[in-house]
Each structure stands twice: as C-alpha cells, then as structure tokens.
Specification:
With about 625 residues, the chain is an alpha/beta fold. Helices cover about 40% and strands about 15% of the residues.
C-alpha cells in the first residue's frame, strides 16, 4: 500500500496494477482492491516430445544448410546415413570448438551471474549430437527425457528462485505440440499421404502394423510443373474410403498407376467428392525405413501414454491438418479431441507444411474455424520463416488445383521466392482469415473469425523477414480488432539478437506484454544455435527469466501464468483433462498394457492438482470493509 502521491506499478503483478491508496482509518466501510497475486504456476506454452522419426524421409533430407539438404536429396540419403552423419559432424565440432567454448561459457556465467546447470560438466558435446540423439528416440522415450529435465529445472532452479520460495505449492506444466506430417506435400490436397502403408494381413490394419510403405514419386515417368497435366480431373464421383493394400495388390496397383495415374480425390465447389488422377509413380520405401518410421497413430499412442503416465505435467495439443479430414466434409470427429471426453487442450496447426490459413482448396477450414470460435478452442500455429516447411514448398507456385480461381492467380503475381512464405505462413496470411467469417447451417447468424483464440508462435523469429513479421503481429494486436490474438517467444529467445530487439519492442509497445506466452520449443532449441551453442531446457528457462527480470519483473509471471491462463483457458479446461486422464488410465486397453489404473490416493492427488491449477490465477479479489 502507498499513499496517493507515490503511485508505482506493483512488482511481479502481470496486470500492472497501480497500488491503491488506502486511508489510515480502515473502519470506513469502503470497497478496496487488495492485490494478493502470488504466481504458483509455470506454463511452458510450447514444446515438443515427438520423435524426429515422425517426419517422412523426403522432409528429413530437406533439412540443414542448403548445400547439405541438396546433397541429401540428390543422393537419396537414407535416414540411418543422415543420423550417422549428424552424430559424426557433431563429434568433429566438439573436438574442434569445445576447447574454445568451454572457457567462454564459464566467463559468461561468471560475469552475468548465471545459474549453473548441476549436471553440466566442464566440457559439453556439440548441440548437433544432442539434437540427433534425441530425434532418433521414439516419442515415449523423448517424453521420459523431458520429464527428467523438467524435474531438475523445477527442483534446482525454480523452487529456489525468490519469486517462488514462499509458495505452498509450485506447478510446472508444459503444453505438448504434436506433429502430423503425413500429408506435408502437394498431393496431400487430394487425400494422399507421403507414406502410404501396406499390410501383410487385414488384422494388421487395426493393429497399426504396416509391412511396408509406398510414396508417390513425381518425375519417375514424366517431368513437368505441378499443373493440370499432373493432376487430371475425372468426371465421376470419387470413392473416398481409405484403401488398405497388401504387397501382392500393390504390384497390380503400380501397373495401373503407370497407365492411368494414382487415384485421388478432391471436393468440388458444391462439396461433392470428385475423382482425380495424379501422374506419379507409386514407389516402395526401403525396408529399413519402414522399421524406423513412426507414423501418426503411433505418435498419438506414445503421446497419450506419456500424458497419462505424468498427469497434468504434460498438456497435449492435437495437430489439426485439414488435409487429413477434408474429404469427410466436416470437422466433427476432430473436434471431439478437445470435447468433453477429449484429452487435448486445443489444436496445433502448421500451415508451413503446405496449406494456407484461409485455403479455398480445403472447404473444411471454414466450418472448423467457426466452431473453434464458438467454443473458445485455442489454436497455435507456427509463424516464423524458419522451421519445418513443406519440402515441396518451391513447387507450390506452379501448382494448379481444380478449385483455383482469380484470387489464386493474383497471389501468384508475387515473386516466386516470396509466394509460399507470404501466403502460407506469414501473419498477413492469418489476418486474411481473422478478417473473415462463416455462415453455419446448424448455427444462427454469421460467425466472425476476429474472436478466434490464435497464437502466432515464435513472434516472427530472429531473421530479417522474421522481424518484419514481428512488426505485423504487433500491429494486429495493437489494432484492438483481434481480442484473442497472442504470440509466443519459443525458440526465438535462444537468439541473443532477438532478445535485445525484444527488450526495445516491449519498452516501445507495452500493451503487447498481455499477449505473449513463454515457450521453450524444447528440444528444437538445439537447432537455433547449432553447431556451437545449443540451448537445453535449463539454459532456456534460466536465461529467459534472468533476461526478463533484469528490465521488468512483471514479464515472467505474465508470460508463464497470467497470459497462458487466458489463452488456453486453463481454469475452465484443466478439470476436464484431469478426469479424462483418470478415465483413460482405467479403461484404455493399450494404456492398461503398460500402465496400471490409478488407485484412489493417486486419483485424489490428481484432482487436488487440477483444483489448484484451476484456482491459482485468481490474483485479485475485491474485499469490502466491515465495521
């Protein structure tokens, strides 16, 4: 409390409330706002546990510096070779540069008064080694590694920080971004996966045990741009039932495809499924790749197992790729993932995987966004020029879809080099969506999309184009037209230049601090500084908090608690997720094969934790004085 002539912003209060003047005589019967804000929750709003082997090989070959990516693609490098070469390069970098970086790290920590990782030795391996070693593991093992890192950061750092020392209970929870990469190519528009499974016998289908995968390879029989000569419309109704082929059936399928093309489908302007032939060769992947690849179903099984094994420590987001769902003409089933019986907090999207935020080629999007608006379902989308873009991104410029119209032709007036990032990934591409709306048959009136709960992740990122996107995000937030638009600082804060720019941005645009989420993007942070100085979970958390606290102590609790509660609506959703975790652990057959149901004591603890999380953000209470 202060007197009226000495107003100041209360420290550690994300709402930035000015301390209220209180009369000496407290027996006046007046109403006073008393700040009792004490942060007790830390939310990492954006991180990953999916295996690197969830990505198809064509995508993996496209990663890394451009010369490396070109070499890997030209030589059709195997996954095993790429992983081995990454580990080998990491070892070379370690031998060459670690003798220089080790004393530099020690000096930096000494002068900056940084927190030392208790498990950190004098010498460290190159982050390339850490990254590749993590990517090689399956999703459940990556989750186990994260839990170990999380416990260390919580016990040895956060619980010793002055901000949290007096709290009766401290929660550190992380929002898991799943990654559906099975449609991350142009042919995904027509319901065709990058990897299409074959099965030895019919019962292997339900067991998710493919014996091989085939992929559509363009240029095998004919080389041409992705225009109407490659995607040939057929004047007939399409059968959109997923085909499950056996090896012998595939041989005949290959022969037919060589003559007629690969059969696929799209929805016409009236919503009818129409057949289309794709001029491409169905090519078998190597047996070793079938063994290593972790498909979407397996990733989901592993993710859900981790979520129920460590209740409320991991809160999953379901990856919505409209190309998986659009031939079904509605989004009802996918919305169940975040419904009353769902385990997921909201939806992850990744338009850089090859579709536009507002894409007429995918009519399902209009219905999907409208229902997310009506139900307050949060969506987080990758929004930086860096990252895991579609490996065919340079071919989208020449691609022609049967539904393309005048607007598509206007977009291609841009330079080819700008087309994909501008119309598929940038904040301006999302602004076009937010400025629109949809009329739903089963709802009354038009649904405006400007109220969509949307987070444009990475705040643009640490590149020149990324900082331009950063400014676009700021303009959109400050316009006041999008009340539920947020951004996060995941990955980007691994870059010292970005952190410096961020400080100036916050000082110039103080209003946006209510729309920023803290995220680590673990374990992707190794990529940003490789091959020399990677950021593990300890580094990212400790360095981010220290940097923010050095110029505004209200930012850390705002980014890690106050803002995530409003974006993810944690107080409203945590009870549902807790009960569904308990239910899944008790009744899901696959879960019960590896985990026992919770006992009554464990169930009680989960419900107490959920109750704590639900109530923890009630930071300001109105009290009325009584005589």
């Amino acid at each position: 409390m202060t007197n009226a002539g000495n107003k100041r912003i209360e420290q550690n209060d994300p709402k930035g409330k000015v301390l209220q003047h209180v009369k000496p005589d407290m027996m006046c019967g007046e109403v006073h706002t008393i700040s009792i804000y004490k942060p007790t929750i830390i939310v990492d709003s954006h991180m990953h546990i999916q295996s690197g082997r969830c990505a198809p090989l064509q995508f993996v070959r496209d990663q890394g510096p451009q010369p490396v990516a070109m070499l890997q693609t030209a030589t059709s490098a195997s996954r095993g070779w790429i992983e081995w070469s990454g580990l080998t390069l990491g070892a070379i970098f370690t031998l060459l540069f670690e003798p220089v970086w080790a004393p530099a790290r020690a000096a930096s920590r000494l002068f900056n008064n940084g927190s030392k990782n208790p498990d950190e030795g004098i010498l460290q391996a190159s982050p390339v080694i850490d990254l590749v070693a993590e990517q090689k593991k399956n999703t459940i093992d990556v989750a186990e590694d994260f839990i170990l890192e999380r416990e260390k950061v919580l016990a040895s750092y956060f619980m010793k920080e002055a901000l949290y020392q007096d709290v009766p209970h401290l929660v550190f929870t992380s929002v898991v971004m799943t990654m559906d990469m099975e449609y991350c190519h142009i042919d995904g528009y027509f319901g065709l996966k990058v990897y299409n499974p074959l099965y030895e016998k019919r019962e292997d289908i339900d067991a998710n045990k493919p014996c091989a995968y085939w992929t559509p390879q363009h240029g095998e029989w004919v080389k041409s741009p992705r225009d109407k000569s490659v995607y040939v419309k057929r004047d007939k109704q399409a059968d959109t039932t997923e085909k499950h082929l056996m090896p012998k059936e595939f041989e005949k399928y290959q022969e037919e495809a060589q003559i007629e093309g690969i059969t696929a489908a799209y929805l016409d302007d009236k919503g009818n499924a129409r057949e289309l032939k794709i001029v491409a060769a169905p090519v078998l992947m190597q047996d070793k790749e079938t063994e290593l690849y972790e498909n979407w179903i397996k990733q989901m099984q592993y993710t859900e197992r981790a979520v129920v094994k460590y209740p409320l420590k991991l809160l999953p987001m379901y990856h919505f790729d409209p190309r998986r769902w659009h031939l079904e003409k509605n989004a009802t089933e996918v919305l169940d993932k975040v419904g009353d019986k769902g385990l997921y907090l909201g939806f992850k999207m990744y338009t850089a995987q090859g579709y536009r935020p507002w894409d007429p080629r995918l009519p399902i999007l209009k219905d999907f966004y409208a229902k997310c608006c009506l139900r307050g379902i949060p969506i987080l989308n990758h929004c930086t020029p860096k990252g895991a873009a579609a490996y065919e991104r340079d071919e989208y410029y020449a691609f022609e879809h049967p539904l393309d119209g005048e607007n598509d032709r206007k977009q291609k007036q841009d330079k080819k080099s700008d087309y994909f990032s501008r119309h598929f990934v940038s904040p301006q591409a999302w602004k076009k969506l937010l400025d629109g709306g949809a009329e739903l048959e089963d709802e009354q009136g038009c649904v405006a999309f400007n109220n969509l709960y949307l987070c444009l992740a990475h705040f643009g990122g640490p590149t020149d184009l990324g900082m331009e996107w950063n400014r676009q995000i700021i303009e959109m937030i400050e316009s006041g037209e999008y009340p539920n638009l947020y951004t996060d600082i995941s990955s980007s804060f691994a870059d010292s230049g970005f952190r410096k720019d961020f400080k100036a941005i916050i000082q110039k645009h103080p209003k946006i601090k209510d729309r920023i989420l803290f995220g680590t993007d673990w374990y992707m942070t190794f990529v940003y500084s490789a091959p020399f100085v990677g950021k593990n979970l300890w580094d990212y958390c400790t360095e981010t908090k220290k940097f923010l606290d050095d110029f505004d102590t209200s930012l850390w609790p705002a980014f890690t608690q106050y803002n995530p509660y409003r974006f993810y609506r944690l107080d409203q959703q945590i009870g549902r997720i807790a009960e569904n975790i308990i239910e899944m652990r008790a009744k899901d057959k696959k879960i019960r094969e590896v985990l026992k149901p919770f006992d009554e004591e464990q169930i009680d603890e989960i419900r107490k934790e959920a109750a704590w999380i639900k109530a923890a953000n009630q930071g300001h209470v109105i009290y009325k004085e009584t005589p």
